[in-house]
Amino acid sequence: MDKQSKKFLYEYLNNASPTGFESSGQQIWLDYIKPYINDYMIDVYGTAVGIVNPKAAYKVVIEAHADEISWFVNYITDDGYIYVRRNGGSDHQIAPSMRVNIHTEKGIVKGVFGWPAIHVRDAGKEEAPSLKNIFIDCGAASKKEVESMGIHVGTVITFEADLMEMNKNYLVGRALDNRMGGFMIAEVTRRLSENKKKLPLAFM
Length: 204
Prior knowledge:
The chain is α+β, with helices and mostly antiparallel strands. About 25% of the residues lie in helices and about 25% in strands. It has 2 domains: about 90 residues, Zn peptidases (Aminopeptidase); about 90 residues, Beta Barrel (Elongation Factor Tu (Ef-tu), domain 3), CATH 2.40.30.
């Protein structure tokens, strides 16, 4: 992978684009492919489409989704703890102790999924993580303090888990499914353009 592709990949994957809030990620994708396409469109749902050879009668479509699982603030307790509900297929089993980014209009607020340390849990009565007993601590001492940070019911939360390379062979991170598909579409588009391939069909 060349430096240009790798820079785009990291920017694309590290950008938070939760389900229903994908516009920033779609813009990163579109900005990357604009030099290599003839036209583009964005529909009312925020779907971004790049078009090569738009006048061709026969068209090929390659598609991928670009969102990621996340959480919504469900309610805030009087002592400042945040309980959540899923946005997509978020896994509550892996949530305990995970760091999160809470996306507010004032900016990112840092938090962590709370879970009792092993030495204070009752080994005979250990509960499995569930949406009823996991919560987010953002360092606030009251509901009022949480709300002063711009956090309210419905605020979106994503895991803080940037892209990581393992053993120079594997990538680990958020949103690999299916933002890697978007990355591959962009790379196909770039290489068609750079290699000056004349297509008998339209590529979208």
